[in-house]
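Hey, sorry to bother you again with one of my protein questions. I've been puzzling over a protein and I'd love to understand its fold better. Take your time with it, there's no hurry, and the full record follows here:
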Amino acid sequence: MRSLLLALAALQLFNGALMLAAPQFWYGTVPGVTETGPFNAHFVRDIGLGFLSAGCALGLAGWHSAIARPLVAVASIFLLGHALPHLAEMVLHGSDPGHAARDIALIVVPALLPFAVFMRRTSHA
């Protein structure tokens, strides 16, 4: 579990740091983002802070197993809160297979994995 948490932390930290440091680059580079509306640097940076926070929590959870459960729970609040509207949009408005696969791979799965770790740790507590 430690390796998974640290890998997920690296993914979230990289994404959040890129959103903060180069919001225009992030907006134009990440697949599907330009389809969500016009560029707004402030908004991209705000969301980047959420990814940085989740990444920090997952990284700390990976290094400190004694406090991992609450840290993973905190990260899951943001990550699942981000993923659920994406899933709802796919269900309510439809999505072509390519867009659905991208959102599931890049947003939903990285949100569900820490939650699965949390649930596993909860059931073994």
Observations:
- The chain has a mean pLDDT of 93.
- DSSP finds five helices and no strands in the chain.
- Helices lie at 2-21, 23-29, 41-63, 68-93, 97-123.
